[in-house]
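dumping this here before i forget
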Amino acid sequence: CFLIGIFFGIATKNEFLPPAFRLLLMTGFCGGFTTFSAFTLEGMQLLNEQRFLIFTLYIAFSVVFGLIATFTGVWLTQ
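structure:
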C-alpha cells in the first residue's frame, strides 16, 4: 500500500507515465506483494476457527493501516 501511494503520488505529480503504465505498475507489480486472496483466506480461516474477535480486529486493522500507508505514501510525494 505504501509503495502504491508513492508511485501514485510521483506519477500524478509529474505526469511522466501514461495512465495505462501507472495502472500496470501499481496493480500489477505492487499487487503481487499484497494479494487480496491471502487476506480473504486468512479471514476465512479465523471465521472457521470461530475466532470472531481476532477476525474483526484483523479485518479492521488491515483496512485502516492499508489506507494510512497509502495516504502516507501519497503525502510524502507531495
